[in-house]
Structure formats: C-alpha cells, structure tokens
From TrEMBL:
Transmembrane feature ranges: 6-30
InterPro entries in UniProt: Apc4-like_WD40_dom, WD40/YVTN_repeat-like_dom_sf, WD40_repeat_dom_sf, WD40_rpt
WD repeat coordinates: 60-101, 248-281, 341-375
Protein name: Anaphase-promoting complex subunit 4-like WD40 domain-containing protein
Keywords: Membrane, Transmembrane, Transmembrane helix, WD repeat
Gene that produces this protein: LOC100384033
The species this protein was found in: Zea mays (Maize)
Domain Anaphase-promoting complex subunit 4-like WD40: 209-258
Zinc listed as a keyword: no
C-alpha cells in the first residue's frame, strides 16, 4: 500500500477481511477481481468468458487483405467472403460437397455488403463502397447485373434479398467529411430493386435528409423490413404498401446492426455504445434482454468499421464482431454461460451462422475466414 493508486484496492482489502458478504457484492458490481494474496496486490482483470467447445475448425486463406464481409449461402454449403481490396471469393468448407461454384470476383472497389438470394445458392449480390451493386450468378459464373446507385449516395452500407419476392433492398448513404465511419456517412437512400429487370421499384420514405441506414433485416415472409439508422432509430416498413409503419429511438448512439429475433416477436440491435438490446414487438419500447458488449465492440473500434451481430438457426446464440482477436457468443435464451470464439490474429470484422447447423464463420482483419463447428 505504498502509492495513492492502491487506495481503492486498500478499501477492497478491508472489505475482504471485514465482511465476506460484502466482497461477494463487490464481485457482482465490478465483475471479476482476482486476488494475489501473497504479494498483497489486487489485479483487476477483464472478465473472461470460457472458450467455445469446438468440433472442427477450417481456415480459409484465399484473401490478401482484411475481410469486410462473410456470408453462408441459403443452403449453407457455399460461403462468400470479401476483402477491402475489392475481391469476393466463393468457396466451400466441406470438400465432400460439390464445389462447382468456387469463384473469385474482382470488383475494383472495397466490398461493403454481400447478400445471397434466399431461396437458392444461385445469386449473390455484392455492394461496393463506390455505389456499385453487382449480381453474380454462381452457376453460370458470371455477373448478370452491374448497376450504379444514384451518384449522391455512393456508399452501399447493406443489401438484403426478400425471402419471398424477387426483390432486394439497398441501404445507400451520401458521403461527408469526418474522422470516423459514422461521421463519414451522411443521408440515407433506401431503394427496393426488382431482381429480374434490375431496376428500382420504389424508394422507401424516410423523410427529409434522413440519417444513414446502416443495416437491414426482413421478417420471414418478407412483409416487414427493419432498418437501423445512425441517429439511433430503428424503422419498420410495410413492404406491400412501401410505407413506414413504426419507428422508435433505440440507442443514444448510431445503431450498427439490426436483426429479427427467432419468433419475430422481438428485434435485436447493436448500438455503437457497445450495447445489445432485444426489443419487444408486442410492447413497443420494452427491452426484453440486454448485454453490454463494449469490451469487444468499444467506441474506438467503431471508428473504423461498423460491427455486426448474427443469430444462430434456433435463435439461441448471438455472435458479435469484435475489436479483439476473439468474438463473444451470448446466450439469448436459457441459462448457459456466454462463450468466446477461438482467436484470430487480428480483430473480427464479420460474422455469420450456418442456416441450420451449429456452425459459424468469422472474417478477420488478419485476412482469414474461419469456419467453426461447435459442440
Ligand atoms: C473450392 O474451394 C475449396 C476451399 O478453398 C477447396 O477446398 C476446393 O478444392 C475448391 N474446389 C474446386 C473445384 O476448385
Ligand atoms: C435513391 O436511389 C435511387 C436508386 O439509385 C434513385 O433512383 C433515387 O433517385 C434516389 N433518391 C434520391 C432522393 O436521390
């Protein structure tokens, strides 16, 4: 106890020796404190989640720059991954399945969004940071559409295919000066496109000079679209009417990612404050579940990229990208403990779950993509 810095530790020690019950309380408040009694020092360490139990893990090393997105196809047998040098690769993790769709696509600009068609593994939509949207036919192995969005909205932040109709939605943003990802995204343009004519069908209304939309999610029948915005709002659209049905302020900071919950009775959102919230859709504004994941998605890591969340096929586990080499896996239902993934050698920039199996992919700034099957 020689320096002022130890003062608060000193209080902990007193508590420790005086009142065993109090220390239990202190543990609850401050997370994990580890005591090294011999040298009379208290180390406040980061709380550690146990490591996930892995059945197998495969590492794909086909990219030469940080991974921007990785996505399982509708059946789960193909994976598309992209890197910031503008390369998209389609590959399989399982050498026993047909890998006739393997391909490398050069887009000439950073790939910022990937979305597979929902009912087959045939079409992959690719969005770039310079306003380009390409559709790749994975069977014919060619680009079947190569369009540019309005020049005023050159950043494609997300693309999503409808699970039912032959349409997709693009979330594009105007650009402005700024030092962080969010400061550089300006106003939103949310356009619905037809997937046969490749022409815009409607522009979804968001009001005058709307803050950028960062992430999109359809419900199971494609009738409702959820969209998250940089002003902290979540918007919901009725796709048949092409109108906004509701919206609410979800975070005090930009929302980075939005997802429908498993029974579609809730919506998950990740704010750039590192908070994950689950919102009731029956009782608007009610929070059903929440986690503070700012240790993995800290404000510093949001400066360079948006983080994303992914739910497994039965809606029980939520995987989040991470500024650290490991990503957290939260248990949304049940009482199992939270887990962390095996490490990459740099931050985890994109995540996705297999559509049916307990298996996820993690893309990293270390250029690799890992497929992990868990027990
Ligand atoms: C497709 O890619 C996977 C993963 O890189 C590889 O194992 C497989 O051999 C490739 N198949 C073909 C036909 O190139
Ligand atoms: C939004 O983007 C679509 C598709 O690029 C374009 O047709 C439309 O004019 C844009 N809206 C505005 C307000 O610029």
């Amino acid at each position: 106890m020689c320096a002022p810095i130890y003062f608060s530790y000193f209080i902990f020690f007193n508590l420790f020796f005086c009142c065993a019950l109090c220390i239990v309380h202190v543990f609850h408040i401050f997370g994990t404190l580890s005591f090294a009694a011999e040298d009379q020092q208290v180390l406040v360490t980061e709380e550690e989640f146990p490591e996930v139990k892995v059945d197998f893990q495969e590492t794909f090393l086909g990219h030469n720059s940080p991974i921007s997105r990785c996505r399982f196809s509708a059946s789960g047998s193909n994976i598309a991954s992209s890197s910031i040098d503008g390369t998209v690769r389609i590959w399989t993790y399982d050498s026993s399945t047909a890998s006739s769709r393997n391909a490398t696509i050069y887009c000439g600009s950073e790939v910022s969004a990937l979305s597979w068609e929902c009912r087959s593994d045939r079409l992959l939509l690719i969005g770039t940071a310079n306003g380009g949207i390409k559709a790749w036919n994975a069977d014919a192995k060619r680009v079947v559409c190569d369009l540019s969005t309005s020049r005023n909205f050159p950043s494609i932040l997300d693309l999503k295919c409808s699970p039912v109709e032959p349409v997709f939605v693009s979330a594009a943003a105007s650009r402005r000066h700024g030092s962080t990802t969010f400061e550089r995204t300006g106003f939103a343009n949310l356009t619905v496109w037809h997937m046969k004519t490749w022409k815009p069908l409607t522009v979804l209304p968001l009001g005058e000079d709307p803050p950028a939309i960062t992430s999109l999610c359809f419900n199971h029948n494609g009738k409702i679209l959820a969209a998250s915005a940089t002003d902290g709002m979540i918007h919901m659209f009725d796709m048949s009417a092409g109108l906004q049905i509701t919206g609410w302020p979800a975070h005090d900071s930009p929302v980075s990612s939005v997802l429908f919950g498993p029974a579609e009775t809730s919506i998950f959102s990740l704010g750039s404050d590192g908070k994950i919230l689950e919102w009731s859709l029956h009782n608007q504004g009610q929070i059903l579940w929440s986690r503070d994941c700012s240790r993995f998605c800290n404000p510093e890591s949001f400066k360079t990229r948006m983080h994303e969340i992914a739910l497994d096929s039965n809606g029980k586990r939520l995987l989040v990208t991470s500024g650290l080499v490991r990503a957290p896996i939260y248990q949304v239902q049940g009482h199992e403990s939270e887990l962390r993934t095996l490490p990459h050698s740099s931050s985890i920039t994109s995540v996705d779950w297999h559509p049916t199996l307990p298996m996820y992919i993690t893309g990293s700034a270390d250029h690799s993509v890992r497929v992990t099957s868990i027990l």
